[in-house]
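The material for today's practical consists of a large collection of protein records. A record pairs a protein's sequence with a compact description of its fold. Instead of coordinates, the fold is spelled out as a row of discrete tokens. We will come back to this pairing of sequence and fold again and again. Here is such a record, shown just as it appears in the course material.
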Amino acid sequence: MESGELLKRRIIELAYRASSKCLKTHTAFISSPNEILHELSLSGSVDMNKETIGDSSYFIYGGDEAERAVVFFLPSYMEVEEEKKKEEQGENIALLHIEGKNEKFMEKLTHRDYLGALMSLGYEREQFGDILVYDKGAYVYCLSPIAEEVAKSLLSVSHSYVKTSILAPKECPIKKETEEKKINVPSLRIDAVISECFSLSRADSKSLIENGSLFVNGINKTNTSYIIKDGDVVACKGFGKFIYEGETGVSRKSRIFIAIKVFK
């Protein structure tokens, strides 16, 4: 697994290759790629607002609301939205559906069980993305070139015999669990919303934002007066993530009632 400065250099190298060779390139799966890109943005290597690195544009994908994802780099003639659709359809990322050969005898397995079974086949962790476990199986994102071999080779997980099929990422039926909450805020400034959502003082919420711990729709925000918009996906490092769903009313004291969906 690439890490630290080596991973940062690899990202810059892939972005340069995309623009100079006029081809699409990508990393392996990375944990919290926005944080790596934010660190690069501090040195001026990445523009997270324009989502560019030099002459290359980039996007991140690893399934819906992925914690582990791949960063794709595009030359100028490629359109980001078109390439995202290709990834949802399985161009470079596949979705493995692992289930019991006989559901009646399938034991309850954990994330660790599935990961251990995949690693025992001789693959690296960076070749796999999120592992979404449900009662009788799991959905696993992986790099497309290894999908068929994994599907053929994975015969058991823990003490259960399994079968594996290959799907397009967009076919994943499991969505990250969220809890709907209604809170009231003095304004729609991001520091005020963060303060109420995560039970922080206003000073602490401002400090988190200014220190680069806040991402809105995957883009780092250091402006504490940013006005949150319907549909914004807000992630605060160390505290959690939520989707802002909009205003629901105003109190007698002019505080604003808002609805959010918090990821569990």
Notes: Residues 4-87 form one domain. The first strand starts at residue 25 and ends at 26. The mean pLDDT is 93.
